[in-house]
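ok so for the tutorial part 2 we go from a plain amino acid sequence to predicted structure tokens. step 1 is just haveing the sequence, like this:
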Amino acid sequence: MRKHVHFTSLIRIFFLLSGLSSASFMTLYGQVNTEVLKLVKDINATGEPLTFNDYSGWTDVNGDLYFVLKSRQLWVIKQPDSTAIMLKELDFISNLSSMNGILYFSANDGIHGNEVWKTDGTSNGTVMVKDINPGINGSDPSLFTYSNGLVFFSAHDGSRGRELWKSDGTTQGTSIVMDIMRVVGSSNPSSLTNMNGLLYFVTNDGQHGYEIWITDGTTEGTRMMKDIRPQHRVSSHPRDLINIEGKLFFVAYDESFFRRLWVSDGTAQGTMMVAKVGENSGTPLHTPVDDMTEPTQLTHVNGVLYFTGKDAAHGVELWKSDGTAAGTQLVKDIVPGSRSPQYLNYLTSYNNKLYFVATSNYDLWISDGTENGTMSLTNHNQMRLTGYPDLTGFKGSMHFLASWATQLNTVHIFGIDATPESLKSVISDSNGYYSLTHLTSSGNFLYYVINGSLWRTNGSTHQRINQLLFSTRDSNPENFIVANGMMYFSAFDGFTYGLWKSDGTLNGTSLVHRFEDNVQYLTQSGNYLYYWANSIDTDSLTLDIKLWRTNLINDETTWVTDINKGGGDYIGDLEDVNGTLFFSIEVPMIAGQEFPREAQLWKTTGTIESTEYIRSFNEVGAPPIWLTNVNGTLFFSALTDPEVGEELWKSDGTSAGTVMVKKINPNPLEPSAPSQLINVKNILYFVAYTGDYELWRSDGTESGTFRVKDINPNGLTSLEDTLYFQSDNQLWKSDGTEAGTVEVATFDTPEGARIYSMYLLGRTGEDLIVATSYVRSTFLPGALWKTNGTSEGTVAILNPIDNLTRFSDITRKGNMIYFTGSVNNTPQNNLWRTDGTTCGTFPILTSGSPQNLTMLDNTIYLTSTDPRLGRELFSLDESAIPGPCLDEEVYVAQKDMNSPSQHIITNYPNPFTLSSTLNIDGPPNSTFDVSITDYYGNVRESYSNLRYNEKYDIGIQLPSGVYLLKVIAGSNISTVRIIKK
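step 2 — the prediction. this is what the tokens look like for a chain of 981 residues:
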């Protein structure tokens, strides 16, 4: 950020510093979540129950319990509430870590890949910290560790390999500590451990192999602690670092390549093997500890290190150490002699005692560090701990999962103090070995899962957390059509597929008829809705695809024709021509055989008797396509024989009247292959090939079928009875004449890229709104434009438009245009709205992959995925979306009664292109903080300790778009929208 003193044209925005609520924040800014949607009906309400495998990531943050469902949903339970709240749905949520009251974790939002996230326990406060490795691959952060006010972690930025990073929780404050592996490759930091305000970790610099390093968070303060095995081909490979009251214990290879216990005070001189502390005296020590190797499960209990170790005399047993050779001792030979316990695991510190599980019978043991004080707490002849006993301290007692030997299918939560006699059962469940799981202590409660349901106890009473369903299953509504004031569509209710209808209300949404698969090609003709659907043939009891129709008055549904009874017809287009329904189909030429197939054209007026075959076209299974009604005549593209090729045809419904309009390309090896047939003001326009793709028109006669212009058209679209299309990087329009086929606008492209597709979204005022998607070697973020038909009047609204690579589902309502776009060329969609201005263009849904936008009675309906409901039918609540805004807009925050003083915030210019100048009048010698957030809720820039009455340049690194500027002064927050063009 640059500080400057010059002054330009001033826009003064007056408002009071105040605490905006999260709802005000979202409404003011314009990025809204699923609150914008209203559920019409949960058509498939069959639940997807949870199992014990669906829970993970249990983490306590100041008494609040966080956890993850199916690696996709982050939840929190806040004390003393018994309600679990879902904070965010992402992918691959993991690595939950509590850091100074904030939860950090890694997750993938489907746009940025796996990156660093944090949450303060609110939905709005659950945000990505930084996009370290831009793109869908992500930086894959892990090993979050708090040290001296910073969060350290391992990540890769796509260019320097996996290295050590740090963050203060802001985008600007997140950076690499040091590129330790300076050559190609990764240093792979691990075992991150805080000790005395410094971070200790294991890493590889490419010269010394894996050794322990130290950092204070700066490049200058990052160094290797000690090269334990110099001049050796294999380094010491330290692991299991643990800080015990200022001593760093770890396990590493010695000179003889045995894993030994080491201790360090953080200096090279103070780093030594515990077993050979006296070696430098000239006389090697030959105490039993010198023979102890392979220490594991290092655990801190009341200033002492406990671990499992192996020596020749005792096998693997329990040991302890204070960091000296004399103080490193066998605690107890649990299985006397050189034999080891079959099981020795789950070392857990609680109430200054060590608890662990040992012996082949999975007994719970306790130790105070003495041989006599190390004993079994459970009688192995009567009880057996589960394979995952979840040792958890709670209210002075150790709790664990176990079963009585005579009732192994009944799992108990047992609580025990320091004696066998104190054992008591807290709760039990008899539904099998894994019916009771996930013992977790948080705040004043002990949590557990029974048969997929989350419960908790305060030690006396038990309480079920609100019913957690990952979601009900999807009904997946699709194939929408509006007919006679109702929406009709295909959906799955959990039992079968069917044709559904809806007037947009819960009670007005109902099943019309059941089928065995999705209904397709829904087409209205008169008072009937026609479609193809699979049903069970009553004679053969096999699936049979038939043409069906539904009476739009009374919902009576009957099948119209079954051309290939008991078989799987290959279906094609349906087109209504003045009450007669035409359709194309492929049928087997030999009964009972799938191939060869014949392409045919048929017609019907809705009864079996009126369904007539018109004619066949070919024997290669290519049915007529692009069926289009123009003034009572059916036009289509069809292939007859190889000598003719695919050309333009028409039909009056008779065999004799079904003829080729014109042999457009006389070369049969290069047929004209008419496509994109469209009716504009009773003229048929289409694209045909005659050595190149060109724009053609036809009135149904050979002479009236001619090329309009020698141009390469694509995306033929009708808007306000005018034909528009794309040609290369230009938008064109045509009145059907060569002279009247003119360029409307030319759009810029990124360097080396071309426009892949152009989408005419509609008109706002005098301007056409156009979306462009780019491709170079891969798809690039698209752009949104407006044009009045002049070069000067063709300007970018958003360029690029974040992460959108393709556009679809365009719906216009007044001056507002709604559209969906593919996110990074993936199946994930975002829903956007534009009024033709930069300020009024923003995403209104960035999750749920909305699609199938449908307008009914001035309300927009769509399908979207809700975390709890699955993929269902929703309506768009436009009252929850901010209205159009001016480029220079004043927002006045609500007054905070605890802070009545007025401040004047100056932000100019707004909109800006390079940077915006910020100045705030306020108390002398006082400071404030600033954060700039995008519409996804991610912090893009942040500044700390700015001084009042001074000018600062902000937004220099921001791409074009709309952002929220937040000024934080103590507990008071003021918010204003800023725009970068």
